[in-house]
Design a protein that fits this description.
By secondary structure, the protein is mainly beta. The longest helix is centred in the N-terminal third of the chain and has 16 residues. It is globular, with a radius of gyration of 22 Å. The protein has a five-stranded mixed barrel with strand order 1-2-3-5-4. The protein has one helix and eleven strands; from the N terminus they run αβββββββββββ. Strand 1 and strand 2 form a beta hairpin.
Length: 175
């Protein structure tokens, strides 16, 4: 870096710091950088549409939302029944626009209620639907919905499964 450019850069930095717009950040060495801690979300009572696993990794689609499965994913399936059509409780993390399954538990019976936490990817309340991470929920006059929902918000949706559709009973904005 030439001396004029260095002087200009330092002058701009001093102005920015004096205005309180930013604070100095020193770059870390690459080996010192930590992975950000990821928040875990839940999908309880989801129906499996597809499974593709080989040697403990691959993917699973639950109610039309795709989750990556890694060798670190804890799969709780005592009877070897993880296949299309079964119901699961799933824990996952959001990482660079991918959903990474951390735990998949195959359920013994059909759940009465579905609960899903995730990001709103489409919102059309006038048309009675909200899409969370790719899973479509239908709303109606009985659906309790927190005010001010927008695409990109993190929510918890509680729903009933009726005729293969997910009917939202409650949509709660997460902090």
């Amino acid at each position: 870096m030439n001396s004029k450019l260095l002087a200009l850069t330092m002058a701009v930095l001093l102005v920015v710091l004096s205005l309180g717009v930013a604070s100095p950040v020193l770059a870390s060495e690459p080996d010192e950088m930590e992975e950000p801690e990821l928040e875990e979300f839940r999908f309880e009572g989801g129906k499996v549409n597809k499974v593709s696993l080989m040697e403990g990794k691959g993917w699973i689609v639950v109610d039309y939302t795709k989750f990556k499965v890694t060798t670190d994913t804890d799969i709780r399936d005592e009877d070897g029944m993880l296949m299309k059509g079964v119901f699961v409780d799933l824990r996952f993390e959001r990482h660079h626009d991918k959903l990474i399954a951390t735990r998949i538990t195959v359920l013994d019976e059909d759940p009465e209620e579905v609960r899903f936490e995730g990001e709103i990817t489409k919102l059309a309340l006038m048309h009675y639907k909200v899409v969370v991470e790719g899973t479509k929920f239908i709303t109606n006059a009985d659906t309790e919905i927190d005010e001010g929902l927008a695409v990109g918000d993190l929510v918890r949706v509680e729903a009933d499964r009726m005729d293969g559709k997910l009917i939202a009973t409650r949509i709660t904005l997460l902090d």
